[in-house]
Design brief:
Layout lengths: L17 H68 L5 H21 L7 H21 L7 H5 L1 H81 L13 H55 L1 H18 L5 H29 L8 E4 H11 L1 H7 L2 E4 L4 E4 L1 H17 L8 E9 L2 E7 L32 H11 L4 E3 L8 E7 L10 H4 L25
Helix pairs in contact: 1-2, 1-3, 1-5, 3-5, 5-6, 6-8, 7-8, 9-11, 11-12
């Protein structure tokens, strides 16, 4: 007899699925366990009942009877002392004994539902002693011995002996009841142990049967199926999976085999896509490298012709300024201004292209010292504007000193430049630890940045103001963003701050390896930047809030 894919079905499992085996086994196990559970429940209930009766009734009843006897003894002692001396202090234990007698008698009746053994005899003898001896003696005048106590001494002794005898009989009966309850409890314990031993044995037998059934009907076929699947997962995708076992396990094996075949097709497609993606990534990497090199070369090679244009326009201005008409002077001014702004733009572009490519010498750097050096270089603009600059203690990080100087100079310079016309700048630099990062904020009371421009200001050459209102090339904050990301951090505008501008950025204590480095700078053997005619390529640090 054959099943799926022509595989022979094992004898004895041809008409039974795993679900059918499990249903039958679970049903039989539930019936047996229910019977055993009912038996065990009855035994536990019986044990609890006897134990509760022994703990909550029998033992407390005996204890209460003993306390009742003690209360009566206190009465007898007090009456005898009062009868002999007439001292009222002996009536204190007598009266306390009367109260305790009422309490313990009521407690005993409650515990035994009014059926305390010997309670009638105890009550009768106690009442006889109190009526004949205790009450009359207690009623005698204080200060002298009671004649009645001496006259009825023998009678009082006999009456209280009857009380003691009744109490002894009651306590003996209560002890016997407690021993009987304890014997029943021990017998019930033995029965409980036997029942639960039988339950444990049956459970073990059932567990063995279930284990054997699971091994034959499920575990062995699944282990074979798992071994085949692991072989495929290890890379042998050509290995065919042959299903076996019950019908549902065979169906599972068939589905896994279909999945293997589908995986083969998808792997072939994925390999083609990976090759295409690798080619595109290589093209993109090469394109980025070429674009960055082009930006540097273009700005670098433009220096010389631009310098000539700027020099000759300035010569024209000095030589023919005022010699021609006003329109000619205006044209010359336009040419000089355009050449100067182009020079500034090229220098800024050079600075931007050098971030992460030329300046990437990470070392332990005291940001306090870098900030002080930056403020010194900005001292003229700070003094002219009347700016007040404060800062928190700044940490020591692993960073590039040139880039940190550019970062502080752009942020502080922007805060000074974009101030309110009628108000001196107030600038504060804060720093706090945030896990593995340091979070910094540069806060000022200037003109601020509208929330809709919070992203735009970090895009290169983006300006929010005309050059007539505020000078600059629109590259400052773009350079700050590049520097911060090169050091493993982020930078953003705090749009919740409305009293000016607050720029928040983070820096890693130790920048991640190759963080922010372009391909040519991150790879070994990258050639250094050639020197320009005007210096070594460090460039001027432009102070731009606009991006």
């Amino acid at each position: 007899m054959t099943g799926e894919a022509g595989v022979p079905r094992p004898r004895g499992l041809s008409t039974w699925t795993t679900r059918q085996w499990l249903r039958s086994g679970v049903a039989a196990s539930l019936v047996v366990l229910t019977l055993l559970g009912l038996t065990g429940g009855w035994v536990l209930g019986r044990t609890a009942t006897i134990s509760e009766e022994l703990v909550d009734v029998k033992s407390p009843a005996l204890t209460t009877s003993i306390r009742l006897e003690s209360a009566l003894l206190d009465q007898e002692t007090g009456i005898r002392g009062y009868g002999l001396t007439g001292n009222e202090e002996f009536l204190v234990p007598y009266r306390q004994g009367l109260q305790d007698q009422k309490t313990y008698t009521a407690e005993l009746a409650r515990l035994l539902d009014g059926e305390a053994p010997g309670s009638a005899a105890v009550e009768r003898t106690t009442r006889n002693w109190q009526e004949r001896i205790a009450d009359p003696v207690a009623a005698s005048p204080a200060g002298a011995a009671s004649p009645l106590a001496a006259a009825r001494a023998a009678e009082g002794k006999a009456a209280f002996d009857d009380v003691r005898e009744a109490l002894a009989e009651q306590q003996e009966q209560l002890r016997a009841d407690r021993v009987e309850a304890r014997t029943d409890l021990l017998a019930t314990y033995d029965l409980r142990n036997w029942v639960f031993s039988a339950i444990a044995l049956v459970i073990l037998v059932l567990a063995g049967l279930v284990f054997e059934g699971m091994r034959r009907g499920i575990t062995t076929p699944l282990e074979k199926l798992g071994a085949d699947a692991r072989r495929v997962a290890d890379g042998d995708f050509s290995h065919t999976i042959l299903p076996s076992g019950p019908a549902d396990v065979r169906r599972l094996g068939t589905e896994i085999e279909s999945m293997r075949q589908r995986l083969l097709r998808e792997l072939a497609f994925t390999e083609q896509a990976r090759l295409l993606l690798d080619a595109q990534a290589a093209d993109l990497k090469r394109s980025n490298t070429e674009l960055e090199q082009f930006a540097y070369v273009a700005s670098h090679d433009l220096q010389e012709p631009l310098r000539k244009v700027s020099s000759f326009t300035q010569l024209l201005q000095r030589r023919y300024g005022g010699a021609l008409d006003a329109r000619a002077d205006q044209y010359i001014d336009f040419a000089v201004d355009g050449a100067n702004r182009m020079q500034t733009l090229i220098n800024d572009l050079l600075d931007f292209s050098r971030v992460g490519r030329v300046h990437h010498t990470h070392q332990d750097l005291d940001l306090d010292a870098v900030l002080k050096s930056t403020l010194s270089s900005l001292s003229m603009s700070v003094e002219e504007s009347g700016a007040v600059i404060t800062h928190d203690p700044l940490p020591t990080l692993v960073a590039d000193p040139t880039q940190m100087g550019m970062l502080w100079q752009n942020l502080i310079g922007n805060a000074v430049k974009f101030r309110r016309p009628d108000e001196a700048p107030v600038i504060h630099v804060s720093a706090e630890r945030d896990g593995e990062l340091w979070r910094f904020a540069v806060t000022d009371n200037g003109i601020g940045i509208a929330p809709e421009y919070a992203e735009k200001v970090f895009v290169i050459f983006q300006r929010l103001h005309t050059k007539d209102a505020y000078s600059g090339s629109g590259i400052g904050l773009a350079m700050c963003k590049k520097i911060v990301e090169f050091h493993g951090g982020t930078i953003e505008i705090d749009s919740t701050y409305t009293a000016g501008a607050r720029i928040v950025f983070t820096l890693a204590t130790v920048p991640p390896e190759n963080a922010g480095l372009p391909a040519d700078a991150a790879s070994p053997g990258a050639s250094p930047e050639p020197e320009t005619e005007s210096g070594t390529g460090t460039g001027q640090h432009r102070l731009e809030r606009t991006s």
